[in-house]
Amino acid sequence: MQTPPTTVPGIFPPGLPIDLVKCWSSLFNVEGCVLEIAKSIFSGKFENVEAACCKAFSTLDANCWPHMFPLNPFFPPLLKDSCARIVPNSPTHN
Length: 94
Description:
signal, Prolamin-like, single chain
């Protein structure tokens, strides 16, 4: 018997690909990170994104980005650049 994929009620609808849940999970592991990113998406301001959240974001596979931010493809590179200033030694994705 196969175990159903883990979902977060209200955020990840059932049946969502497990990869997307894995993409988001590293951000959910940092307290307040998803909220910081959501605020940045709507305000266009990145100064409230803390270093721990930037570290988590910088470790995301770039292949996650189009699935995580389908309505704003320019957001991940902007946040990545902002995070590079906050966490200078964070890995970059091409």
